[in-house]
């Protein structure tokens, strides 16, 4: 017997009652996720219910397609900041991805690598159950979080990223610098926090869901070290000074499964990148 719930009249009445009681939308979504609805399904059901639309036809327990609206990414061919013009090399609409050139100059890349060599240590990931940082075999790299107190250049880059991609600077997490040696990789993963996992709630208290990622390429890898999106057959070769942007959460709060991505193993040389994750709200570092 299936344990997956269906959105029937009982659920509709439950939503009506709790909306009247003044429950927050997120609390309703959380309750539906706890009852085994897929997160994307729960968000779409609530959005349709609030809009007065009819229940989803057919098998409403299936994961609905991610709904693409107006991208957050500026639609101009050249992105601009107060100190930089950065042309798009390519862009994609579904999922929303862009490779942007000339975000950093060579001196800035060299300086970030220099800072990184002084600070990096074995990289960790978020444990899905506890929310704590743990190390896993699927991620073989060394990393460190940097902010303005580390070096003035970090503040400059934070401001530039905010201006280029039209996101509030305060919504960005601290810049995360990463080094991958030979064999270093990060197997396919998502950057957003799966809201059905208990450990995600701890991190989402500090600024909400991640909505976009900017990867800065600091060097050109001799062989290997691509960023790949396996579900759409896309591979990006690191190009010094360029930035890869992708976004993965829409206005309904759905998360885009097509943004599954990976860092392929470095086969020769080393790979240096700096990653900026952007939150829905103001990011608050852990004390």
UniProtKB/TrEMBL annotation:
Residues 171-280 form the Fe2OG dioxygenase domain. GO terms for molecular function: iron ion binding; L-ascorbic acid binding; procollagen-proline 4-dioxygenase activity. PROSITE patterns: FE2OG_OXY. Keywords: Dioxygenase, Iron, Metal-binding, Oxidoreductase, Vitamin C. Its cofactor is L-ascorbate. Pfam families: 2OG-FeII_Oxy_3 (PF13640). This is 2OG-Fe(II) oxygenase superfamily protein. It comes from Caballeronia temeraria.
């Amino acid at each position: 017997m299936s344990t997956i719930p269906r959105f029937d009249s009982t659920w509709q009445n439950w939503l009506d009652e709790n909306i009247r009681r003044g429950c927050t939308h997120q609390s309703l979504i959380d309750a539906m996720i706890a009852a085994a609805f897929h997160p994307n399904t729960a968000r779409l059901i609530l959005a349709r219910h609030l809009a007065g639309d009819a229940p989803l036809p057919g098998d409403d327990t299936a994961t609905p397609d991610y709904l693409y609206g107006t991208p957050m990414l500026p639609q101009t061919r050249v992105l601009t900041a107060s100190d930089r013009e950065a042309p798009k090399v390519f862009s994609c609409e579904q999922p929303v991805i862009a490779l942007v050139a000339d975000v950093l100059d060579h001196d800035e890349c060299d300086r970030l690598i220099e800072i990184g060599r002084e600070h990096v240590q074995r990289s960790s990931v978020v444990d899905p159950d506890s929310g704590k940082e743990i190390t896993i075999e699927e991620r073989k790299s060394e990393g460190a979080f940097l902010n303005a107190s580390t070096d003035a250049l970090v503040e400059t880059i934070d401001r530039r990223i905010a201006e280029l991609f039209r996101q509030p600077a305060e919504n960005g997490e601290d810049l995360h610098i990463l080094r991958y040696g030979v064999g270093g990789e990060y197997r396919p993963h998502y950057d957003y926090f799966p809201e059905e996992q208990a450990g995600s709630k701890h991190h989402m208290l500090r600024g909400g869901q991640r909505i976009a990622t900017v990867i800065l390429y600091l060097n050109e890898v001799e062989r290997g070290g691509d960023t790949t999106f396996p579900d759409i057959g896309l591979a990006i070769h690191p190009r010094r000074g360029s930035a890869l942007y992708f976004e993965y959460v829409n206005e309904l709060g759905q998360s885009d499964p097509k943004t599954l991505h990976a860092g392929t193993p470095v086969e020769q040389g080393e790979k240096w990148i700096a990653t900026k994750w952007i939150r829905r709200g103001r990011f608050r570092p852990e004390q």
